[in-house]
Amino acid sequence: MAATAPVIMRVMASSISTAKRAGGIIRDVLKKGDLGIVDKGKNDPQTEADRSAQRCIIASLAKKFPTVKIIGEEGGSDLNVCDDWLVNELDEGFLQQSCPAEWKDVKPEDFVIWVDPLDGTAEYTQGHVEHVTVLIGIAVKDAAVGGIIHQPFYQQPDGEMGRTIWGLKGLGTGGFTAVPAPAGQFIITTTRSHSNALHQQALNAFASTEVLKVGGAGFKVLQLLEGKAHAYVFATPGCKKWDTCAPEAVLEAQGGCLTNINGEHYAYNADVEHVNRQGVLASLGQDHVALVEKIPAEVRAAVGAK
Ligand SMILES: Nc1ncnc2c1ncn2[C@@H]1O[C@H](COP(=O)(O)O)[C@@H](O)[C@H]1OP(=O)(O)O
Ligand SMILES: [Mg+2]
Ligand SMILES: [Mg+2]
Ligand SMILES: [Mg+2]
Q: Are 157 and 278 members of one domain?
């Protein structure tokens, strides 16, 4: 099965196994205690866990899929890694499923894999480890089609650490139980470390019943999937294609929507600008267009303009 499955199924299965290994590396760095923090910019830290997890993910995927373009947040990495970091396995459970017809014949050169080895780095360094995720997004030409969101610090009922959520458009999602957000409320999930006055103005326009301030694009989309929030609002530039590719694919495979604040999808081909200049608006079980229309004109003029 593994050798004959279509490329997208093998990329997804390999990404599931690799994200789990990267999650182990992220836990190990924290356990050792020396985070090796480097500031890449304002509110933009990088740690030894970001660097090592990226090396593990890109070395593993590049070895298995040498002709697929892979773009990682932490730039060019040394792919000479120890065998322990080279993940060979393909997740067997995932491979049991059949490939949606639309992706069966996609060629390796039509894929881009967007890797965020550790989403929520600021929160990782501040002890909010439950916000941390590993994101591997799979784009076909312009579209975010498949995604893995791995939570290294999620404690399973049996005590095991980590859980892995996946989504593939046309197939569905796995690794979690979807829960609708509570009726009669409107809960927004948003940034806790990258807000500004304009972003606050956008939040105010929604007449929400509650605003949850948490880290990471992956964790906020998980909150939508698990019914903790109705919408994810980020009306400022700052997050990048590797932050949104996997969350968008998983959310949309579950019937939700992730766009910029104008309601347009970002393109994820290899030549796009990395920054998501027009912010992020995501929802599940909502009238997404009605949410787009709530963004104030002043915010749209400043953030939504091309
Ligand atoms: N201004 C920014 N500079 C760098 N990264 C950003 C910025 N804004 C958002 N991000 C990335 O998007 C994620 C979601 O943002 P937020 O938590 O503020 O909602 C952040 O965890 C960070 O990803 P990462 O942690 O992988 O660097
Ligand atoms: Mg970062
Ligand atoms: Mg990120
Ligand atoms: Mg990151």
A: no
Residue nearest atom 15 of ligand 1, based on CA coordinates: 216
Spell out the per-residue pLDDT of the chain, length 306, in tens: 456 899 999 999 999 999 999 999 999 999 999 999 999 998 899 999 999 999 999 999 999 999 999 999 999 878 899 999 999 999 999 999 999 999 999 999 999 999 999 999 999 999 999 999 999 999 999 999 999 999 999 999 999 999 999 999 999 999 999 999 999 999 999 999 999 999 999 999 998 999 999 999 999 999 999 999 999 999 999 999 999 999 999 999 999 999 999 999 999 999 999 999 999 999 999 999 999 999 999 999 999 888
∠ CA 145-150-153, rounded to 5°: 165
To test the pocket of ligand 1, the residue of 243, 244, 266 to mutate (highest count of ligand atoms within 8 Å of its CB) is: 243
CB 245 within 8 A of CB 269: no
Q: Is residue 1 part of a domain?
A: no
Q: Is 194 exposed, middle or buried (0-12, 13-18, 19+ CB in 10 A)?
A: middle
pTM (two decimals) = 0.98
ipTM over 0.90: yes
User: Which residues are catalytically annotated?
Assistant: 50, 121
- Kindly state whether residue 236 falls inside one of the protein's structural domains: yes
Count the neighbouring beta carbons within 10 Å of the beta carbon of residue 24. 15
What's 141's DSSP letter? T
Find the domain containing 55 and state its range: 7-174
Instruction: Round the CA-based radius of gyration of the chain to a whole number and report it.
Output: 18
Q: Ligand 3 centre and the CA of 135: distance in Å?
A: 8
